[in-house]
Amino acid sequence: MGTIRRRDLLAAGLLVAGADALRDGARVHAAVRDRGNSNLQIGGFRGQLITAKDPEYDAARAVWNGAIDRRPLLVARCGTSADVAAAVRFARDRELEIAVRGGGHNVAGTAVCDDGIVIDLSAMRAVRVDPASRKARVQGGALWGDVDRETQAYGLATTGGIVGHTGVGGLTLGGGLGFLMRKHGLVVDNLLAAELVTAQGEVITASAHEHPDLFWALRGGGGNFGVVTEFQFALHAVGPTVMAGPVFWAADDTIDVLRFYREFAGEAPDELGTVVRLGTVPPLPVIPRELHWRPAIAVACCYAGPVQEGEHAVRDLRRFGAPLVDLLAPAPYAAFQGALDDTVPRGWHYYWKSANLAGLTDDAIRVVADHAYAAASPRSYTALFHMRGAVSRVANDATAYASREVAHNIVIDGVWLPDESAEKAEAETAWVRRFFQALQPNSAPGVYVNFLDADDGASRVREAYGDRNLRRLAEVKARYDPDNAFHHNKNVRPG
Ligand SMILES: Cc1cc2nc3c(=O)[nH]c(=O)nc-3n(C[C@H](O)[C@H](O)[C@H](O)COP(=O)(O)OP(=O)(O)OC[C@H]3O[C@@H](n4cnc5c(N)ncnc54)[C@H](O)[C@@H]3O)c2cc1C
Fold it and tell me: Is the CB of 217 under 6 A from ligand 1?
């Protein structure tokens, strides 16, 4: 077995601490060969090992945000929990930096690191549904599109993200917002159990009955506590046809639409999940061509109940003002969940900032209307999630996720293309920051950890959890990962 230790590589001059990483997989192999081995191997690992000498290396290290360009020493693509355990032990023995990759969607790019090992779950995407008990077992590298597809075959669903190619792993461990959350709770409120590989390389299960302290931490505490190889979720009857879709109005109507929406959303039944999207109309085939790229505000709806009830629930929204286009209609739930997939493709460059809003005050609405359309790129957008309902009926300290009482969660997404200039990137980043700053007087305490970007450091992690939940997370961290092996994330330090 290859015995690469970070300190050996440093001593050999192959790895320069903090700077010139070991950039060439061939040199890794050379380092191993020099010790009498011809191949890099991990004992007990039967997955795929990818280094810089493999043709797949660039694809394997790429994440959803194309602005992230990191070069791991190796990518360990796992097929089973035993592979994950072997990779964790290998990395720990050699003091290698560890990154864990679920769907690869984290905007901060935490799924990939420089110099270290990526424990890659992208080949572990199986979803098994037990319709009798209304439960699903979902492997740690699955995407939400996988879950919606398999569960909808039985007319079932659980709360999941609003874009089908987002990973179940990261999204769940941060809390999990989605169209069904007002009726069925956050994703973590539907989590029944998680099988995970600990920092010691052991496979354990956390649930309300086994390791309950760990189970509490996993429900919002992110990837700090181990590598989850399987999630078990509660399912609910949803669809398969639901009343769903967006209504668009011209950007000039933003203030009026948001004032109306404030009342409409405030009185909406729990079944009605809505997300407001501000930016330009995405050039999707279902939208009339003449509207493409036009600045507009959209309210996307999904009614988690009978279609007829849904039609009634959205009636006033559709009648408000003069919509540019109304795409609300009975639709297959799984198709609706994938409707936004092409608007945020893999490989474009992204920068985000997010805030909680206690409510949509007139001042908050004015700030949103002033800034939402001021981005230079037509691809940049802002999303406003309507929270409350079942989310806020769970106590803030019942799970690690701690922003349950807020009314809205806003995320400002700067987007530019990979071949666009550095000036363009700076302009989009500056727009996001300006907009975020302007919202500050209207923001509520807390922030959603999964919407934090790379420059959101320890103070924002504290903000995400609040002092009390963070203290408890740190205690659990000290029990399960005292050396902070899993720190390439929005880190909770062992307390
Ligand atoms: C286009 C888009 C849409 C989104 N929509 C939503 C939404 O509707 N609702 C919402 O709540 N969030 C949403 N998000 C945010 C999303 O929750 C985060 O980006 C999340 O990190 C994605 O999870 P992932 O597995 O794809 O990420 P990855 O980048 O693979 O992982 C992020 C981190 O999570 C941890 N992690 C991932 N998988 C595991 C695992 N199996 N075991 C242990 N740790 C793991 C690791 O620490 C990793 O660094 C969206 C993001 C994007 C880019």
Answer: no
pLDDT, tens only, 317-376 = 999 999 999 999 999 999 999 999 999 999 999 999 999 998 999 999 999 999 999 999
DSSP E strand boundaries for 235-271 = 236-237, 241-250
Question: Do the bridges between strand 329-332 and strand 135-139 make them parallel or antiparallel, or are there none, so unpaired?
Answer: unpaired
Handedness of CA 444, 446, 451, 453 (dihedral sign): positive
Q: Which of 61, 101, 106, 461 to mutate to test the pocket of ligand 1 (most atoms within 8 A of CB)?
A: 106
Residue 489 CB less than 6 A away from ligand 1: yes
| DSSP secondary structure letter of residue 490 | S
Q: Which residue CA neighbors atom 37 of ligand 1 most closely?
A: 170
**Cα(172) to centroid(ligand 1), Å:** 7
Unique residue bearing structure tokens 């010691």? 200
> Are 112 and 95 a contacting pair, CB within 8 Å?
no
d(CA 157, CA 145): 11
Angle CA 35–40–43, to nearest 5 = 100
Query: Which numbered atom of ligand 1 lies nearest the CA of 105?
Result: 26
d(CA 465, CA 473): 9
Is 310's C-beta closer than 6 angstroms to any atom of ligand 1?
A: no
Q: What angle do CA 191, 193, 194 make, to 5 degrees?
A: 105
Q: Is the pTM of this model over 0.85?
A: yes
For residue 20, name the pLDDT band (cuts at 50, 70, 90). very low
158-193 tens-digit pLDDT: 999 999 999 999 999 999 999 999 999 999 999 999
Q: In the chain, what's the furthest Cα-to-Cα distance?
A: 75
Residue 139 pairs in a beta bridge with 230
Q: How many CA atoms, within 13 angstroms, populate the side-chain half-sphere of residue 122? A: 21
Mutate to test the pocket of ligand 1, among 65, 121, 173 (most ligand atoms within 8 A of CB): 173
Say if ligand 1 is within 6 A of residue 228 CB. yes
* Angstrom distance (rounded) from CA 162 to CA 178: 6
| 340 Cβ below 6 A of ligand 1 | no
Residues 6+ apart with CB under 8 A from 71: 21, 23, 52, 61, 114, 115
DSSP string of 195-230, one letter each residue: EEE-TTS-EEEEESSSSHHHHHHHTTSGGGS-EEEE
The DSSP-derived string for 151-169 is HHTTTEE----SSTTSBHH
State mean pLDDT over 258-278: 98
Over the chain, what is the mean pLDDT?
93
The tokens for 333 are 């739930």
Separation between Cα atoms, residue 210 and residue 420, nearest integer Å: 50
